[in-house]
Amino acid sequence: xxxxxxxxxxxxxxxxxxxxxxxxxxxxxxxxxxxxxxxxxxxxxxxxxxxxxxxxxxxxxxxxxxxxxxxxxxxxxxxxxxxxxxxxxxxxxxxxxxxxxxxxxxxxxxxxxxxxxxxxxxxxxxxxxxxxxxxxxxxxxxxxxxxxxxxxxxxxxxxxxxxxxxxxxxxxxxxxxxxxxxxxxxxxxxxxxxxxxxxxxxxxxxxxxxxxxxxxxxxxxxxxxxxxxxxxxxxxxxxxxxxxxxxxxxxxxxxxxxxxxxxxxxxxxxxxxxxxxxxxxxxxxxxxxxxxxxxxxxxxxxxxxxxxxxxxxxxxxxxxxxxxxxxxxxxxx
Length: 333
What we know:
Order of helices and strands: HHHHHHHEEEEEEEEEEEEE
CATH class of the largest domain: Mainly Beta
Number of domains: 2
Radius of gyration: 41 Å
Number of helices: 7
Structural class: alpha+beta
Mean pLDDT: 86
CATH superfamily of the largest domain: DNA gyrase/topoisomerase IV, subunit A, C-terminal
Helix content: 25-40%
CATH topology of the largest domain: Neuraminidase
Number of strands: 13
């Protein structure tokens, strides 16, 4: 809807509200005025009314006698019977006449309002002015002219906080609520696989031993202050609890560089970060790991460093990373 169309819909709605409210109030005022007229008739013949009520054997008989003898309607007669005789005798004529006058004025005003749409629109104006006087406050935003406009993206609206991401060996994932590093007790619920300094706008990549990975926005991770108290990655992604977690890495949304992947058997692979799919809970393949082997490590590099791989029995190899060319995610190292 355009602004004009939205305003028209709102005004039509308010007109309907005022019409229905006024019709209700008009019917209520007419009923009250009718009862007051009956009470005035009763006061004009108070002694006779009381005598008629006392002589009647039942309430139904009393109602019928009052209607017949004093030309009252059923509603008026019932209103008189609903009052105690003592209260009926103590009623002041002037008060009833004043209230009846008020009700007749209200009836006249409501009938005039319902017959005149212009008056109904004027009432909308008065009611909106009253709302403004009661609830209006000083504008909190500022409209500044002459400044270069900036396109606001979804990333700009995300929280910008420094936190720690905790990944446990059994698969639990969580983040802290402050930049203070989490304290690990002597006997934690779960041994840590990774403790990663992160920003809430970063992306957490989790790597399975078979070469598949998933990614989660850091700000959406469950908050915790204790390692092992998070949510299992199988409950947040398409991976299952049978999958073994090998590595975890936090990357900014816009970062240049390469992922350097290494298997336990020494197969290596370099993947451009820009080739990664971004945030997705559906598993994607970063490396086709050979049968009998497992992905062991994943590191972020700028592509210029030298790499050193060492084995448990003391052997090592050192090479320049450019000798390991960048391959697509689906290719083996």
